[in-house]
Amino acid sequence: MPEIFTTVYDVFMRTYPGFLEATVVTLQLTAIGVILGTVIGLVFALMKISGSKILRAIANIYITIIRGTPLIVQIMFLYFGIVELYTMSNFWAGAIALGVHNGAYIAEIFRGSIQGIDPGQREASMSLGMDRRQTMSRIVFPQALRRSIPPLGNQFIITLKDSSLVYIIGVAEIFSLGNREAAQSYQPFESFLVVALYYLVLVMIFTFLLRLYENKLDVDRA
Amino acid sequence: MIIGENIHKSFGDLEVLKGVDLHVRPQEVVVLVGVSGSGKSTLLRCFNFLEMINEGKITIDGHTVNPKKDNLTKIRAEVGMVFQHFNLFPHKTVLENVIEAPITVKKMKKEEAKKLGAELLKKVGLEDKADVYPSKLSGGQKQRVAIARSLAMQPKVMLFDEPTSALDPELVGEVLQVMKQLAEEGMTMVVVTHEMKFAKEVADRIIMIDEGRIIESADPKNFFENPQNERTKQFIQLVE
Ligand SMILES: Nc1ncnc2c1ncn2[C@@H]1O[C@H](COP(=O)(O)OP(=O)(O)OP(=O)(O)O)[C@@H](O)[C@H]1O
Ligand SMILES: [Mg+2]
């Protein structure tokens, strides 16, 4: 048993400069994926709750396709699709793929929190003479946005782990580096253990931050 | 002040209002009673155009509303509504709740709105709660804020849908007190309530709705002592 600790330790010490760089790439991918996903998600959530049948149908098709296919396929599809049209770095192709993927899930988060607002809120607002737009922007959205933050944080954590899949198009993030390390060093077990540790620590940090935020929300509301 | 003529309202196959005629005069306080499901809330919501009537017409302050042409948003602003479950905006403080509509709808200056808000909160006895969030208030306090919020739009008529039904018994009085004061000041009011003591003391007229029709309309004394309709008699026995 102690032997494994020393070899893992050795691998860790030898590789951490590279992994720290790869961690930055992973975090960048995640951040762009979530931010882009939030913008896309907001647009599609609005389409889904809009009065227009066409807009709703488009949103439904998008969400169904994204949720119904594996992320890794979407990455490949977008990668080869985009690279045909534009020259673009692998990093951006991967980040955009994550954004498009997240968009569908975040659209559902926003839609859920908007529709989860008590209809009485809308009625009270309308009864005061506010129109639909004012009711949405002043009463419904601010409350929905607050409710969205915990699931968005959750989505961030999922994205952090999902971003490992862009190794397939050769982006130098954590998993991709670990993969290379495993092959070159003939120490796959130790290498992937180190990879797992990086993800675990990152996820724990973000989970902790999310908790802090949720507690603060609870305190504000109590 | 508010006149409903031959109001019909259906939800799908279910006809909830079957030709209601109700003429509320300026400064009049009308109490609506009736068993659960008789259509009381629906009638109030039609008066505020939260529901659209299928047939009939509604006239507010001399203007017969044409739902297709008129700006319903503007009409709603003239008809205040107080809900059973308060429906305060939880992300806004008490004062912000009150001044939200004057600022966004009437484009009132913030300073002016705050002054108005402070006056109204004083009127309902909550001037010291201006900066508190609704979650910190008791049910009775919430409902008083909701009344102040509604008053801030200077409505021509106020509709109350069971304003005290969600309250603990000891908190009912403070809300009824505010409503009584409003009535004394000459506000035109339509109130759905089970508080018969309030009805007797404050109402000019009590109206019984049954299965989507008005079956009794009388001043409190006659309503309780000399009801005409059999269903009204049963209802009175039930609540007394
Ligand atoms: N939006 C709606 N869709 C379908 N049916 C509805 C809707 N609103 C009310 N109803 C139905 O209309 C009928 C009358 O409802 P309403 O709320 O007006 O009754 P009420 O007299 O206010 O009763 P309560 O004393 O329980 O509040 C009920 O059968 C109710 O189920
Ligand atoms: Mg009701």
Can you describe this structure?
The complex is a heterodimer of chains A (222) and B (240). Chain A is mostly helical and 222 residues long. Chain A is built from eight helices and no strands. Chain A has helices at 2-49, 53-68, 71-85, 90-115, 119-127, 132-162, 174-185, 188-221. In chain A, helix 1 (2-49) packs across helix 4, helix 3 crosses helix 4 and helix 6 runs antiparallel to helix 8 (188-221). Chain A is elongated. The termini of chain A are far apart. The mean pLDDT of chain A is 91. Chain B has 240 residues and is an alpha/beta fold. Chain B is built from nine helices and ten strands. In chain B, helix 3 packs parallel to helix 5 and helix 5 packs parallel to helix 6 (169-184). The longest helix of chain B has 16 residues, at 169-184. Chain B is globular, with a radius of gyration of 18 Å. Chain B starts with a strand and ends with a helix. The mean pLDDT of chain B is 94. The chains are: A mainly alpha (222), B alpha/beta (240). At the A-B interface, helix 5 and helix 6 of A face helix 2, strand 6, helix 3 and helix 5 of B. The structure holds adenosine-5'-triphosphate (ATP) and magnesium ion. Adenosine-5'-triphosphate (ATP) is lined by residues 11, 14, 16, 34, 36-42 of chain B.
Give the topology string of chain B: H per helix, E per strand.
EEEHEEHEHHHEHEHEEHH
Q: In one word, what is the shape of chain A?
A: elongated
Q: What's the tally of helices of chain B? A: 9
Radius of gyration of chain A: 21 Å
Main interface: chain pair and counts: A-B, 21 and 27 residues
